[in-house]
## 1
Amino acid sequence: MGEPPLVSTYSIAACDLERGQWGVAVQSKFLAVGSVVPWAQPQVGAVATQAYANPRYGPDGLALLRQGLPAEVVVRRLTDADEGRNERQLGIVDSDGRAATYTGSACLDWAGGRSGECYAAQGNILVSAATVDALAETFEAAQGTLAERLLEALAAAQDAGGDSRGQQSAALLVVERDGGYAGLTDTLVDLRIDDHARPIEELQRLLGLHELLFGKTPPAQLIKADDALRAELRYRLDRLGFQRLEDWASVENLEDRVDGEELLDPVVLDALRRKS
């Protein structure tokens, strides 16, 4: 049997300790890179494994992180035990935001990584070191949610050169304790573009949809319904053939943003106006 396909890519593993979120963003000239590279568990850490990737670094790395070991020690434990370490690349962020990145001596140029507070950025077969520099510096400066910051860093890395072989797939994974669907899962965001000419742009589009459908508007931004707004709701719902806002919202997958008709989510109101 020959060598497995090379996951030449750039990635960033990171966390937002204030929000209690950990995640990974990745892009590669490789089919369905999201099935191999990103791993994360809330309050534990995040792992990115690539190059001649060892997928066991994901679950094994998280298991070591659950023991309370710092990122640097976990990287050393994983690579010391792996005879193929020279062809591996790895980035880890632990539960306290400590980060470490590893690039084996046999990884193809350009290959390397940078780590800082709450992030580890790395890449191989890149146009130049500028890709990893863009990942790190953009993440450090970016504002917003962890998912938004990760994608901003990924886009900047592509603009700086990216994978020297081109683009094919990208993925974004963010976890938060009970932060996912209906509060019953830890997976806050899990989006994958498996084969696309411009995967990062498509991933950005999907994140926008994700925020529309599953995001939460701060209570202070909710709109109190007055008589005029209630009349508008009745008119627009009648045009669409619905008696209740909740029924229309469920068809549009916006039900999580509706709690009666006295306090309205501006996202829901905007969508209703556009549809009617």
Note: The mean pLDDT is 95.
## 2
Amino acid sequence: MIRDFPFTIKEVARILCLTIRHGENSNSTDVDCPFCKRKGKLNLNSNKDVYRCNYCGEFGGMTQLYGAVHGISNANAYHEICELLGYDGKNPGSDNGHMAKRRTDESPQQKRADCISIHQTYSMLLSLLSLAKTHKEQLMARGLSSNDIAKIGYKSVPAFGQQDLCRRIIKSGCVVEGVPGFFKVVDDKGNWNGVWDLKLRAPGVLIPVHGIDGKISALQIRLNKPVNDRKYIWLSSTDKVGGASSGSPIHFVGDPTAERVYITEGPLKGTVAHKLTQYTFICLPSANSMGHLDHLLLCLKANGVKEAVEALDVDKETNIHVAKAAAKLRDKLSSYDFSVKTAVWTDKNLKGIDDYYLHRMKENRRMVYDVDITAAA
């Protein structure tokens, strides 16, 4: 069967975090209904990619399901589903890929706002949101205290009210135009009536990404449930009218004049490790994302930083792709004349450096041990 969409009804259900009750591995799956809240009453037909609630009678297709839950059009639902699943909207044998491309071409990317405006707008946004109890418990389980969580500003993605958030942010005097994640609401003819929306749909935790100047440069979302093995996505709105790209900025936490700096992957991971140790961390968006690293290394070199520790995850010892990224990182650090070391630990069940430090802290309640470091190969 040739599908008209590059995704399935089950993938849409995963994005919406609908609890599966029956038939997970069959073509007829029962999940909790997001409309009437009845457990196991919404049936997903994988052969036809449609849904129907046996209690309240709601029915429709995949984009209708996503759009109805979030209160957006089917067209916008299609784009958001593709982005969350990592699809580009192109599907051989159907017109949907071409339609998606035309819509993107008709919505040119907005130039990013200046750094101060982005920081102020994101700060205001976070101040208007709350943190769900379950999210707070998850963050504390990673080693953060209540004070850490409050000070950093982790918040939960709201289930609704995005346009109202935009109105409140604009009323406060903050800029939304050019801030990644914000976009203009237009009708079918492309006319804008002055309403702004915020592309916060997928349930998860908002993670502020800070530059070396301490300002928030972007927001990352840690998804409640990974989608296609992706745990994190950026708050971005490149496929929307008036939307802007988040880019892939590097997160910095700690003292920019410290003698030693650690380089790891992920803003949350690096922040947890910093809070446990008070060491300084550079947090790459991914192991291979070093495009913005040079400017940061120049600043640190000028600040007197002498030693750089490559501290990517332990799978650099077994995964050839991570190993190559780690080697590339060490070469780059060496090119700036840092004394380069690599962080290693013997317990391979501890994936990241944050896991390592949390484990060592639990071993000895009074102190956090230094990570074992060796000269880079």
Note: The CA atoms of residues 30 and 340 lie 54 Å apart.
